[in-house]
Amino acid sequence: MKFPRRTLEDPAINLTPLIDVVFLLLIFFMVTTTFTRETRIAVNLPEADAEQAESLPNQIEVLVSQGGRYSVNDQVLSDSQLLTLGRALIDAAGGDRSTPVLLIADAEATHQSVVTAMDAIGQSGFSRLSIATRRADESNGAGATP
């Protein structure tokens, strides 16, 4: 007895479900994607109208100059590095990290230098930080009000 000869068909892959899934993913990502718009806004920094606070005898004053140089208790630091400022703060406090720190920045100082000073104060373990402002009627910014 002879058996009929069968021909082997090439296996076919149905791509329809795969295309449906890809389109669903595409629609999902198109709907859930948010586009950011780059906007530039003018920031007017406020001036304080508060009375001048009493200066604490053991507080540390950190001055940020216009060029981004730092001074700790009127001692200009050798460079503007984060570690140098941190070491100077710890030396000025004598290891007492509960000493209050007053940050005074020049009006023309870069934002980055002020943030770096705040970062150094925080990383050094100081938690009592005051930021000095100037009064609106002061023209040269000589006096600071925390």
UniProtKB/TrEMBL annotation:
It comes from Pseudohongiella acticola. The keyword Transmembrane applies. It is found in: Cell membrane. This is Biopolymer transporter ExbD. Pfam families: ExbD. It is a single-pass membrane protein; Single-pass type II membrane protein. One of its GO terms (biological process) is protein transport. One of its GO terms (cellular component) is plasma membrane. One of its GO terms (molecular function) is transmembrane transporter activity. The chain crosses the membrane at residues 12-31. The keyword Transport applies. Belongs to the ExbD/TolR family. Keywords: Cell membrane, Membrane, Protein transport, Transmembrane, Transmembrane helix, Transport.
